[in-house]
Amino acid sequence: MIERMTKYSFILLSADKEKFLADLTELGVVDITRASKPVDAESGRILASATAIKKQIANLEAETSDELKALHEELTAERRKYIAALPWGDYSSEALEGLKARGLEIHFHQTPAKKFDSQWENLVPIQVISNLKGSTYFISILEAGQQMPKELAACETDAPKGQAKDLEARVKELEAEQAKCLEEIRAAKEREIPLLKAEYEKTMGRLDGYLANVSGDKAAEETLTVFTGFAPVTEDERLSKAFDAMDVYYIKEQAAPEDNPPIKLKNSKFAREFERITGMYGMPVYSEFDPTPVISIFFLLFFAMCMGDAGYGLVLIIAGLLIHKNILKIGMFKGLGTLITILGVATLIVGLVMGTAFGIDLRTAAWVPEWLHKIMLPAKFPGTDYDYGMVLSIIIGVFHLCLAMTVKAVLYTQRFGFKHALSAWGWLILIVGGIATALLAITGVFSPDVTRWAIIIVGALSFLGIFLFNKPGRNPLLNIGAGLWDTYQTATGLLGDVLSYIRLYALGLAGGMLGGAFNTLGTMVLGDGGAGRWVAFVLILIIGHTLNLLMCCLGAFVHPLRLNFLEYFKNSGYEGMGAKYKPLKNNN
Asked: 563: which DSSP letter?
């Protein structure tokens, strides 16, 4: 959920603002309104310094630099010259100049070998230089002012930019310079990046404080300064006592959506682990719902289904616990140990239910206990030839989209009023009501007469919301036209959205099949045994399953993000345009 905020307006003498901001920093919970871009030369200077540091970090991490880029461009150009000059071999530049001095013109030609005609020698003097890769390279010698025969003019090419041996030497020289430059960058990478990151954080902290300082609106001929700040309502009592003790006048009021207050999320310990995923898309605005609780459930489920292997889930649990205990130190996963453990537990459970562990089909394995067989889903959906996983993926996708449409209808009603949310309610009634009616009719709960009336009611209510009242106060004909266009977009969009969820089944199936392939390959190598064969068997399993695990993790992270960010957010009306809560605080 989104934590409620209190808005504070402060009025103080301009001379006291430095001390006031220092006091706010000590309190550590007030987010002061900042400028969105440099407001003067000083802030611009600080930002430029931070940007330069960030560029240095990016270049070191990418193992590149301006010098290396320039070397690469020059090397590419010289290689092209060398390749173009190679068929012409080595020649004397002085001799060519001597021929020109005598009034002779040298022309260079390239033609497919099968098109070269030796009779051209009867037209003008010709000298074949080489035959390479199906082409003939030759020169022709013409007197000054002599017209070149059209047969030769058709295959004339540019003169080489230099001798092949000189160009080859230059290429080798540039390659050596490039290797040396790259070696220097790699040597500096481990040494410089931590220092640059620390300097970047320090510079951004200085900019943060400076912008907070200069963001105050000055009044009364610059003798007073007005600041606007936000803090969680849970801090009201403590902050009121602190502000009462300061030499400052302040106004306290409940923050409203139009104030655009910063967003601080407040969730359970479980959902809190997924707040960083919400932040990757964008924080909700103050009048929206926090999508984190929904994301926490569905991202976890989608990740587990994409992995689909109980053995890999066990590996993730162990890795997550080691990272959490700081035994396994991997920079990019710092602070993610608990989340990885949670994802591993879900993968373990789903893998057991789907009947796969380290690529082994547990449904057919004789050593699997009977109680475990009882919790596994069948391979085929009852009464059909479709895989259970595929059908289950589509069912989950339909439920996920219906939930998104429900959230959209409720959210729009809360934000804009019921009459401005009639279109959202119309689509919700049509989709959810239609699915519910179909299920109740198929299961026999609704009789044919009741089903008929249910369809009429659902259709009528949906028609009113989608076609007649989608925008109150507008010409009904325009509403009908807009409803038709919306119908086309929604129908085609929902079909594609539902089919997108099949990726949950496909990724899990692909990972399991690839894991099984490594098992089969290892078994084939093992054969009748032997020390060497056992070593090869173990190496194949370790390397193969490690690669498969890494690929599965990548897919299981990216595709659930897509299903939540595109399919769910699009259909739930989520904007994600809020500003993250960033209070002034002392980071030392």
From this structure: I
Question: What distances in angstroms separate CA 189 from CA 58, 67, 201, one per listed residue?
Answer: 10, 16, 18
What is the residue whose two structure tokens read 């106060």?
A: 473
Pairing of the two strands 31-32 and 360-361: unpaired
**Encoded amino acid at 532, one letter:** G
SS (H, E, C) 246-279: CCCEEEEEECCHHHCCCECECCCHHHHCCHHHHH
Give the architecture (CATH level 2) of 1-33+216-264: 2-Layer Sandwich (3.30)
DSSP label of 160: P
Dihedral of alpha carbons 491, 495, 498, 501, sign = negative
Three-state secondary-structure class, residue 558: helix
Assess contact for 10 and 229: CB atoms under 8 A.
yes
Domain spans of the chain?
1-33+216-264, 38-84+165-214, 91-162, 279-377+504-572, 390-500
The span from the CA of 137 to the CA of 115, in Å, is 12
Residues 260-297 as b/e (b if ≥16 CB within 10 A, e otherwise) read ebbbbbebeeebebbbebbeebbbbbbebbbbbbbbbb
Q: Kindly state the tokens that stand for 216.
A: 């105050």
Q: What is the mean pLDDT of each run of 10 residues along the chain (588 residues)?
A: 89 76 87 60 72 80 80 90 86 78 88 90 89 90 86 88 87 90 82 84 75 62 73 91 80 87 90 90 88 93 92 93 86 85 94 90 84 84 81 91 90 82 83 86 85 86 78 74 78 82 90 90 82 87 92 92 89 86 77
Contact 123, 149 (CB under 8 A): yes
Cβ neighbours of residue 473 closer than 8 Å, sequence gap 6 or more: none
Q: Which two tokens stand for residue 318?
A: 């162990």
Relative to beta strand 356-357, strand 249-254 is: unpaired
Q: With contact defined as beta carbons under 8 Å apart, do 149 and 124 qualify? A: yes
Structure tokens at 175: 């390659």
C-alpha closest to that of 544 among 311, 349, 233: 311
